[in-house]
Amino acid sequence: MLGSFGARRRFDDLDEQEILALAISAEEDDARIYQTYAARVRAEFPATAAMLDAMAAEEMHHHHRLIELHKTRFGTVIPLIRREHVAGFYARNPTWLVSNLGIQRIRDEVAGMESAARAFYARAAARVRDADTRKLLADLAAAEAAHMRLGETLTEKLLPGEIRSEEDAAAHRQFVLTWVQPGLAGLMDGSVSTLAPIFATAFATHDTWTTFLVGLAASVGAGISMGFTEAASDDGTISGRGSPIKRGIAAGVMTTLGGLGHALPYLVPHFATATAIACVLVFCELWAIAWIQKRYMDTPFFRAALQVVLGGALVFAAGILIGSA
After folding, report:
1. Does residue 277 have a pLDDT over 50?
2. Given 3-state DSSP classes, what are the helix, strand and coil percentages for the chain, each rounded to the nearest 5?
């Protein structure tokens, strides 16, 4: 009977050989994760890559020591048991979910890996009764604590303040180029360019459902257009702006959201109420754009606000005048 843990075994049901085999596979997995992260960041962040390479080498060293211990106690045949086979064992995030989230996210993941492993082994050691097993788990906990100290030492040695600041600045710049700039351009385009057709339709028909459909069509159409245009305009190889797919997604999604912001209120059937809500949201959208320019593009807030709000107000007024004609 598998029970609530499915095909996984409880940690307390493992014998000493299985615990040792589990530690061997865990050390190898962690080494491979560090190597993957190092390869991912090597071109842009060589100092962090060097730190990860050193930590991977240390994990493999412990891996080999554990294998030698297993040979001494149990022979050369190591049972196949991995983290996912044991209920309650600490899990590792798939590398593809972490490696695309930026250099700081990778650093935080590495710190969390070592901390989780140490805490798990320490708790496990406190729960078992067999003296030899308790000693084994305590040794593993001490090894993980040593890994944490090694990571801190390597960080200080290979990532001194100036180098880390330079890498963080490069990561921030890449984030701005890949996500913020195309997303901001999309938000501005979606928010401003859809003002005229939406409010022209609203004041021409006084029909909230028709206005919503026009706004939905304009927003989705503009989002698709902006997304493909951004993705096709630059492959990022020379400009260093990053993946065209990521930039296209950022531009397309934010363009659509920018238009939907003042189209969705027209789901309210009462025209005056829907229009009042839409006007408030337009004001919020334009000020949000100005704040983003100030936060990420270092544009003085009042200059950004003047440019965005003035431009948006002109398009907004044009839509109302055309619709009321």
Report:
1. yes
2. 80, 0, 20
CA 26/CA 38 separation, integer angstroms: 18
The total number of residues shown for the chain amounts to 325
CA atoms of 178 and 234, how far apart (whole Å): 11
CA 197 to chain CA mean position, Å: 35
Q: What is the DSSP letter of 87?
A: E
Minimal CA–CA distance to 41: which of 179, 165, 136, 168? 168
pLDDT at 176 over 70: no
From start to end of the chain, where are the E strands? Answer: 9-10, 86-87
d(CA 46, CA 113): 21
Q: Which residues pair with 112 in a beta bridge?
A: none
Distances (CA, A) of 131 to 10, 137, 168, 318: 19, 10, 47, 82
Taking a C-beta distance cutoff of 8 angstroms, is the pair 222, 255 a contact?
Answer: yes
Q: What is the distance between the alpha carbons of residues 128 and 123, in angstroms, rounded to a whole number?
A: 9
Query: Could you read off the pLDDT of 66-85 as tens digits, one per residue?
Result: 888 788 888 999 999 888 88
pLDDT tens for each residue of 101-126: 566 677 777 777 877 778 777 877 77
261: tokens are: 């912001």
User: Which domains are present in the chain?
Assistant: 3-159 (1.20.1260.10), 170-324 (no CATH)
Closest CA to 81 of 141, 155, 28: 28
Average pLDDT of 134-147?
A: 75
- The three-point CA angle 303-190-314 to 5° equals 50
Instruction: Give the integer Cα–Cα distance in Å for 286 and 200.
Output: 19
Mean pLDDT of 133-140: 76
Place of tokens 């050989």: 17
